[in-house]
Amino acid sequence: MIVRNALMEDKRAVKNLLETYGLESDFNPKECLVAVEDKRIVGCVRLKDFGSFYELAGLAVEAESQGQGIGEALVKKALEGAGNKPVYCLTVEPGFFMKYGFKKIEGVDLPKKLGEKVGFCMATGAEWTGMVRNP
Q: What ranges do the domains of the chain cover?
């Protein structure tokens, strides 16, 4: 398995993977990393630059490939690109992100630019947790 920057031709596979899990399916290859195994995309993650901070989003690994360290490899590679900026995420799996230095925060502590994201998350009916990883 390799983790690489996404290419335009990855768009359909990434969108399908994100939609499988009910995640936002925005695709910008400049923000996206993919995990590839046997020439097939098995996972993805997005690191969106908001200027003063990043948002880590859209972490997805196909069901049959879970438990093999693919999510871990994607998160580690994405965080390498964050430099000295804080990284925020909204997740239903806070324990997973705590392993990478993320801490739980209250919704009011999220940057205002992530306000739309909070609405999307609440609309899914799942219990989402806001988190931040400071440099």
A: 2-133
